[in-house]
Design brief:
It is built from one helix and eight strands. It has 137 residues and is mostly beta strands. The termini are close together.
């Protein structure tokens, strides 16, 4: 994968549950990370004393974060409502020249800030809340 524009990493949310995704407006920076717990099954019989891991075991998770400015869009209101209602709607993350990750996420945190002579900003953190799908681009 060659160099890409950071603005091309998009976070989208299903606003109404009908499978139509809309980019969360106002985001300036986005990040996604994938994690998988390992299950250590090393024993005295492990070859050469090397650690052994159980294939396919452990919990997989993904987290998404983003920060930006308010754009007075329906996605701003929807993101806040998802948090306060404790919902886990489907989100979509477009990773340029890599693929699309889709599935349920919970808004884990929303932070708001601003200065006297600057714009109001927000930070959003999402935690995976179920099985995710991946489609390569």
């Amino acid at each position: 994968m060659g160099a890409q524009n950071g603005k091309d990493l998009l976070i989208k949310v299903d606003l109404t549950g009908d499978g139509q995704f809309e980019t969360i407006a106002g985001l300036r920076a986005t990040r996604i990370s994938f994690n998988a717990e390992s299950v250590d099954v090393t024993s005295l019989e492990s070859q050469g004393g090397w650690r052994e891991l159980l294939s396919g075991a452990g919990v997989k998770s993904a987290s998404i974060s983003g920060s930006g400015v308010f754009k007075d869009a329906s996605t701003d209101e929807r993101a806040r409502q998802i948090f306060f209602d404790g919902e886990t709607p489907d989100f979509q993350v477009i990773i340029p020249d890599f693929g699309i990750v889709e599935g349920p996420f919970q808004v884990a945190s929303v932070e708001y800030s601003g200065t006297h002579n600057g714009e109001a900003t927000y930070e959003l953190s999402l935690a995976s809340a179920g099985a995710l799908t991946f489609v390569a681009l």
